[in-house]
Amino acid sequence: MTNRILLVEDEANILEAITFILARAGMEVRSHGNGATALEEVKRYAPDLIVLDVMLPNRSGLDILRDLRSDPATEALPVVMLTAKGQAKDRDTALGLGADAYLTKPFSNSEMLEILKRILAEHGTGLKDGGAG
Hints:
By secondary structure, the protein is α/β, with parallel strands linked by helices. It has one domain (4-115): Response regulator (Rossmann fold). Helix content is 41%, strand content 18%. It has a 5-stranded parallel β-sheet with strand order 2-1-3-4-5, with helices on both faces. It is globular, with a radius of gyration of 13 Å.
């Protein structure tokens, strides 16, 4: 069984790039681009980890993170925030709300993979199927 990653991102080029990187590493990736329905997609897909953009149409990634952490069903679900906003204040806000990591755009492929693999391992879901990478 492969790791299931939900990528909540509205920029098509970033979606395509991240999906390629993660799929090549042996992960199953589903993408979702609307902040208003992201929580419904989390329940439907039941991912092992979420990569969540801060700035989304219709709802902020920070609001989504807040809701994930307040729901007992998703409070421990690993979340990596992804954003173009690299200020320390934004990072502190996301981490304070319970994000497992904060990755700023642009990012390197190896940095993203390293962070996701580390978080999956910390949550006991490690890289399943021994995927490449």
